Amino acid sequence: MSQDRLKMQLTSLERKLKLLITAYDAATDEIQQLRVEKAELKGLLKTKEDNLVNFQNQIKIGKIVESIDVGGDSSELKERIDEYIREIDRCIEHLTK
Description:
By secondary structure, this protein is mainly alpha-helical. The chain has 2 helices and no strands. The protein has one domain. The chain starts with a helix and ends with a helix.
């Protein structure tokens, strides 16, 4: 009788072990999927942050353009705009480093 009981316990243990392995495999798969999703979301967040910075720069440029006194001659205005563009290029270069 003791052997039958031992066999039942062994069978039960094997069944529980298979369930545990199945649960472990499912959890491992889910972790991998979540890692992929996390990487995708990080990329999306980076893109959104870059877009936000670009929009903020456009707003700043718009404010600069509005503040420019257009009372002078056009060559002076062109020179000032060129200087602003050079300054923006330097800022962009600095930010990309």
